Amino acid sequence: MGSKNSGVRDPLQVVEAALRGGINHFQLREKGDGALTGSALLEFALHCQRLCREYSVPFIINDQVELACSIGADGVHIGQDDAATQEVRQLIGADKILGVSVHSVEEAKIASREGADYVGMGPIFGTVSKADAKKPAGVKEILAVKNELPNLPIVGIGGITAENAHQVWQAGVSGIAVITAITEAADIAERIQLLQVPCKEEHRT
Ligand SMILES: Cc1ncc(COP(=O)(O)OP(=O)(O)O)c(N)n1
Ligand SMILES: Cc1nc(C(=O)O)sc1CCOP(=O)(O)O
Ligand SMILES: [Mg+2]
């Protein structure tokens, strides 16, 4: 999420509530109308990073590799229209987390070969949080990537809610990424519980 995703609530309070509620990674995605830039972005990113450190949760920055390197973020997430995977891997070093968005087995193979630690796949369902999102694709391509590259962690994203998250887990993802499901929750901790992997008997891959 970014500073403009929390509606009337203070974004840092939402981040802290999500950390307290049990998220295991946080991605700062600052883009779109009114997105912070320059020193305001730096200050916001440092606040988020400090909170993540308090909760021992990896702090990942979307798109902005230079910012991530300059503040020592734990990782970077890039898309197909962002910098090239192998260049970013070289810039951030071997020990940082690198996520790459992919939409096919072919893109997943390239991302994996060039140094991605995980791939993000979406949108699975309709989303209001990404202006240039592709058409919702369901979990079909996730199943195909899982089949071809069983050891590559996949993070599902796009329109995931407490009601549909089980469909995504069932496809065999290692994680799910959400914005609205958490930022609009009245009780963030309770929502995070509802989004988590269903109990073993229900979770067949
Ligand atoms: C976990 C995760 N998966 C996919 C994305 C989308 O990245 P990208 O395609 O580069 O689009 P933007 O987020 O930059 O608009 C993501 N951010 N995180
Ligand atoms: C950041 C992002 N990337 C997507 C992709 O398809 O790659 S969908 C998306 C938005 C996710 O927000 P929400 O949980 O509110 O739908
Ligand atoms: Mg991007």
Automatic annotation (TrEMBL):
Q: Which Gene3D superfamilies match?
A: Aldolase class I
Reactions listed under catalytic activity: 4-methyl-5-(2-phosphooxyethyl)-thiazole + 4-amino-2-methyl-5-(diphosphooxymethyl)pyrimidine + H(+) = thiamine phosphate + diphosphate; 2-(2-carboxy-4-methylthiazol-5-yl)ethyl phosphate + 4-amino-2-methyl-5-(diphosphooxymethyl)pyrimidine + 2 H(+) = thiamine phosphate + CO2 + diphosphate; 2-[(2R,5Z)-2-carboxy-4-methylthiazol-5(2H)-ylidene]ethyl phosphate + 4-amino-2-methyl-5-(diphosphooxymethyl)pyrimidine + 2 H(+) = thiamine phosphate + CO2 + diphosphate
Report domain Thiamine phosphate synthase/TenI positions: 9-182
Residues where 4-amino-2-methyl-5-(diphosphooxymethyl)pyrimidine binds: 27-31, 62, 101, 130
Q: How cofactor binds (record note)?
A: Binds 1 Mg(2+) ion per subunit.
Q: Which InterPro entries match?
A: Aldolase_TIM (IPR013785), ThiamineP_synth_sf (IPR036206), ThiamineP_synth_TenI (IPR022998), TMP_synthase (IPR034291)
- Which E.C. number(s) belong to this protein? 2.5.1.3
Annotated binding of Mg(2+), by residue: 63, 82
Record keyword Cell wall biogenesis/degradation present: no
Needed cofactors, names only, are: Mg(2+)
Q: Which residues bind 2-[(2R,5Z)-2-carboxy-4-methylthiazol-5(2H)-ylidene]ethyl phosphate?
A: 127-129, 159, 179-180
Q: Which UniProt keywords apply?
A: Magnesium, Metal-binding, Thiamine biosynthesis, Transferase
Q: In which pathway does it act?
A: Cofactor biosynthesis; thiamine diphosphate biosynthesis; thiamine phosphate from 4-amino-2-methyl-5-diphosphomethylpyrimidine and 4-methyl-5-(2-phosphoethyl)-thiazole: step 1/1
Family stated for the protein in its record: Belongs to the thiamine-phosphate synthase family.
Q: Give a short account of what the protein does.
A: Condenses 4-methyl-5-(beta-hydroxyethyl)thiazole monophosphate (THZ-P) and 2-methyl-4-amino-5-hydroxymethyl pyrimidine pyrophosphate (HMP-PP) to form thiamine monophosphate (TMP).
PANTHER family, per database record: THIAMINE-PHOSPHATE PYROPHOSPHORYLASE, THIAMINE-PHOSPHATE SYNTHASE
Recorded hits in HAMAP family, A to Z, give: TMP_synthase (MF_00097)
Annotated protein name in UniProt = Thiamine-phosphate synthase
Q: What is the lineage of its organism?
A: Bacteria, Bacillati, Bacillota, Bacilli, Bacillales
The gene from which this protein is expressed is thiE
